Amino acid sequence: MRINHFTAIGAAFLLASGAVVTRSSAQAAPSGAAQPAPVTAIRAGRVVDPETGTVATNQIILVQNGRFTAIGANVAIPAGAQVIDLSALTVVPGLVDAHNHLALTYKEVPERNIYYLTYVLDDTPFRAIQAVSNGIQMLSSGFTIVRDMGNNGNYADIALRKAIEQGWIPGPTIIPSGLIIGGLGGQFSPTPEMAIDKKLVYPEYLEADTRDEIIKAVRQNALFGARVIKICVDCKPWGYTTDEIRLFISESAKAGLKVEGHVQTVDGARRAVDAGIWSIAHDRGMNDSIHKVMAQKRIFRAGTETPISLVGHQTAQRYANTVAMLKNAWENKVPLTFSTDADYYVPGRTRGEVAIEFIETWKAAGIPAPDILRAMTTTGYEVSETERTRGPIKVGMWADFIAVPGNPLQSIDALRNVQFVMKNGMVFKQGGVMTPAAFFNGGPVNGWNAR
Ligand SMILES: [Zn+2]
Fold first, then answer.
1. Does residue 187 surpass a pLDDT of 50?
2. What is the Å distance from ligand 1's center to 28 Cα?
3. Which CATH superfamily is domain 5-93+392-439 in?
């Protein structure tokens, strides 16, 4: 089943905007001669459709120009196609982590997991490089889309998005929020020196206490390349009112952006759902009645349910509540997304391995594997607003998928063993080994004017 990835990728370097550079044809063809883009054919033993919870066996998947062009049992493999044999594996659409912070890694040494200190110790360029590494680690664990929800210094998340879209580096499709918008102090409790002199809170948070400041903050993030807006609903006792949250939503909509609220109280959750927010992060403000409204209004839940197995990052009492609330949300049919908030270092594990560990909480809540997989895929594409361009394994979509032994519809733990990753039609992992060398480009493949 191993193939030479240098040839199998067919040298088509494709990006979200549709720009194309075909390396081998550019080298081989005389200038001006048009050649059809190379075709990659994948023999898949099984293909899972998480939306319907079904499996199709012995499928042929064709990929050209980075997109799926044919899928079926009787699809003919064109002459000259590069063939990838995954007949012993199960092909699954790429996974989504709907809440991570790739340019933030707090740790036991030296900052004792106090991330306020991480902001002081780690500068934005250093964190941006960290984000590149974390992005590769997420991709290796099968996450082809990551919503990056702030706490990334001075827009390191947006630099990461642009670098991946430009083909500089391998990584998931990034949906970045830019700076988290909150009132004075953000999520911190700063001293006057820290807050007023703006030395130790910013740029981690973007300050907006009035309606004018709210409008300006949304426009700033949109200008600098955010794909979603993240706000602190109730990080301070006063927080944002329902009307102020509505203002965030309407101003963001002008830029085509949705709003996620960091929520930590029931009152905050009530204001967020009343305002009709797009998604809610964390589960501290959740209860049965909030869940019922979220289901009715189809507000996405990014509960960031830390498993007890990540020792030091969860307590037994808090975990019991997390599991109970996740179960309650599932019973109420809230749109559930798989979200981790994994922004810390667990010795011996990659960022992707920390993220996949979160399936333990979902299993503890008694949620069936097909529903967990749906949260990790279908609902993830919806909350990321990619469902019409990437995610599902369907003709016309960008060719993103992973392959694992076993069947994640029966045991979600199958996702712990990602053997193969394709994104934009390029192979990033095969035989369980990341193969990034062929994907580093000496220049942007999406034009010089990165936005
Ligand atoms: Zn977070």
1. yes
2. 47
3. Urease, subunit C, domain 1 (2.30.40.10)
